[in-house]
Design brief:
The complex is a heterodimer of chains A (115) and B (111). Chain A is mainly beta and 115 residues long. Chain A has no helices and nine strands. The chains are: A mainly beta (115), B mainly beta (111).
């Protein structure tokens, strides 16, 4: 089972920031928080990941709480092309030797960006 | 780089037929995996491989076989197709420590 809890859907106005929450209260010390998104039946696309510090890249920012039990993905200026299902996943970094590094997808949050 | 490629894009099978879904990557990634996605659902892991010659089962392996004879290729075989295997299949690859790259998917219908 997925180790994360996300709201099933959210709306955001075009040009505004989209803040997508994720709860992962049972996260282990060696597990990272990953975010992927899936735009209408395409293959999932990696967005960002982090361990405990806030992270930023050209797509988004990831804010992880100090106790690491929750996080927020921020799309600073959402566009219509950001309409997608967003998945929050926790996993260890290394895959060798076992299944711990596999991505286990939940149902994600369907983000609808509206004009 | 072509990234992760999957063939065919679409396939219709009759119950009991067998087929192989092809997946290839040109990024020299050690890790490759297969997922299926049913309508309104997240992706479920079928099989994965951490390197050539090494494969293991994921969440939903029944009815599927895999092999990994080369780093580049990771085919998924349906032994005897059933309507319950109607789904969209995604292949993914990554370095052991990195982000996973997904292919465009194969849409399979079993009648």
């Amino acid at each position: 089972d997925a180790k994360t809890t996300q709201p099933p859907s959210m709306d955001c106005a075009e040009g505004r920031a989209a803040n997508l929450p994720c709860n992962h209260s049972t996260i282990s010390g060696n597990e990272y928080v990953y975010w992927y998104r899936q735009i209408h039946s395409q293959g999932p696309q990696y967005i960002i990941h982090g361990l405990k510090n806030n992270e930023t890249n050209e797509m988004a920012s990831l804010i992880i709480t100090e106790d690491r039990k929750s996080s927020t993905l921020i799309l600073p200026h959402a566009t219509l092309r950001d309409t997608a299902v967003y998945y929050c996943i926790v996993r260890v970094l290394m895959n060798y030797g076992g299944s711990q590094g596999n991505l286990i997808f939940g149902k994600g949050t369907k983000l609808s960006v509206k004009p | 780089n072509a990234g992760v490629t999957q063939t065919p894009k679409f396939q219709v099978l009759k119950t009991g037929q067998s087929m192989t879904l092809q997946c290839a990557q040109d990024m020299n990634h050690e890790y490759m995996s297969w997922y299926r996605q049913d309508p309104g659902m997240g992706l479920r892991l079928i099989h994965y491989s951490v390197g050539a010659g090494i494969t293991d089962q994921g969440e939903v392996p029944n009815g599927y076989n895999v092999s990994r004879s080369t780093t580049e290729d990771f085919p998924l075989r349906l032994l005897s197709a059933a309507p319950s295997q109607t789904s969209v299949y995604f292949c993914a690859s990554s370095y052991s420590t990195g982000e996973q790259f997904f292919g465009p998917g194969t849409r399979l219908t079993v009648l």
